[in-house]
Amino acid sequence: MTDLTRLTLAQARDGLKAKEFTSVELTQAHVDAVARAKSLNAYIVETPEKALDMAKASDAKLAKGEGGALEGLPLGIKDLYCTEGVQTTAASHILEGFIPQYESTVTSNLWRDGAVMLGKLNLDEFAMGSSNETSYFGPVVSPWRRKNSDAKIVPGGSSGGSSAAVAAHLCLGATATDTGGSIRQPAAFTGTVGIKPTYGRCSRWGIVAFASSLDQAGPIARTVRDAAIMLRSMAGHDVKDTTSVDAPVPDYEQAIGASVKGKVIGIPREYRLDGMSPEIAALWDQGVAWLKAAGAEIREISLPHTKHALPAYYIVAPAEASSNLARYDGIRYGLRKTGKDIVDLYEKTRAEGFGKEVRRRIMIGTYVLSAGYYDAYYLRAQKIRTLIKRDFDLAYESGVDAILTPATPSPAFAQGEKGSADPVEMYLNDVFTVTVNMAGLPGLVVPAGLSSDGLPLGLQLIGRPFEEETLFSLGEAIEQAAPKIVLPEPWWG
Ligand code: GLN
Questions:
Q1: Is the CB of 159 within 6 Å of ligand 1?
Q2: Which ligand 1 atom is at minimum distance from the Cα of 214?
Q3: Are 234 and 219 in contact (CB under 8 A)?
Q4: Do residues 408 and 185 make contact, with C-beta atoms less than 8 angstroms apart?
Q5: Using CA atoms, how far apart are residues 338 and 156, in angstroms rounded to an integer?
Q6: Which residues are catalytic?
Q7: Range of the domain at 313
Q8: Residues 295-328: tens digit of each pLDDT
Q9: Percent of residues, the chain, with pLDDT higher than 90
Q10: Are residues 15 and 101 in the same domain?
Q11: How many contiguous H segments (helices) and E segments (strands) does the chain have?
Q12: Is the pTM of this model over 0.85?
């Protein structure tokens, strides 16, 4: 039998329906691949027994011609999603040993549709980071390497376990989350597809909160079609999340292959940053040419408040994080350090439980929310957020259907190469992605080429609210036009 981990999610689905193989065979192939790939450190917890039990149940359904949209398909779950009875840590020491008694709505939706869980994927601690180096469980290593180098390359962050596992065929697809770029940047760094849907499209219930007004769930997959299939199952209204939207979920897969003729694509002037690498500029121009060739109309647009997005994000996100993370006190979840009194217990637990980047965010967040600074920082950042959203509204009102930008300012870098001396160097990774979270819009990243040193590069499409279908159609047009990105031979086992 050919290696079942080489299939796309759609091919695996069709193969199961046609009884070419069973879910147990498909799942076993992935369980074995996961077991061989320890050097990537993509999974924090592996659940092979659970996976095979779920696969058996799926096979029984498939044998009767029953089963949901994802019946029998093995997936990885970012360890930010609470999973009933399976440790959920957000890659933090403070949650080590926390076993939720409930299941997040998004993962419940996946199991409802028949998906199989392979385990919990590594991430930056509390989803704060762009390289997966802040995880308490150690960094994830990308399956990609630079030409003629064995330096360990980062898979992006915070969903770096998800992107590395999908790229290295350690699952058919993975869940991820995106607060400032954490689905799209890791997808770009690993040559995979990631979509952050419109804010409210997926329920946030049961996902460990980072910055609640920005967080969104979404998939990382190997093709645009696979991402569309996964999103359909993940999305939907949930009474347990009042910010989730009560609107029907389209069959996103129908958008694959739809014509993009006449679609108006905005090219925002302000994204052409000073000192932008020629390689990224050329990739962007190439994307424009592909969409034009597919029949789209290209229009230059202006999003004048873009330059304020990154500083405003790094006020709003830490502010919300400092409030969300107040609940980790050593009493209710995970780690507890005893102290001479209750305050001492809180302080000792939090000092030991949180890593350096998380502590930095909490300090920034409490500072910008404190009396005397609230107006100068937090309130001003919220005003900027409104202006950023208005820039996009005006572009869409003028007839633009979607916006094309680079996904990241550079290809992936090596471990330890960025941000160790100055955290802002790491934050600059998010320059093209945070605007989308600030405005609550959908954003899709598709692989589009390789850098001069042989690493993947991605393009980003930003859509109108709840028009993910347009992004899937346009994304597939780029996917069809772009050179196929082929991962080098597996070196990780
Ligand atoms: N890199 C960004 C941050 O560290 C985004 C993270 C995310 O989207 N979760 O805040």
A1: no
A2: 8
A3: yes
A4: yes
A5: 36
A6: 78, 158, 182
A7: 306-380
A8: 999 999 999 999 999 999 999 999 999 999 999 9
A9: 96
A10: yes
A11: 15, 11
A12: yes
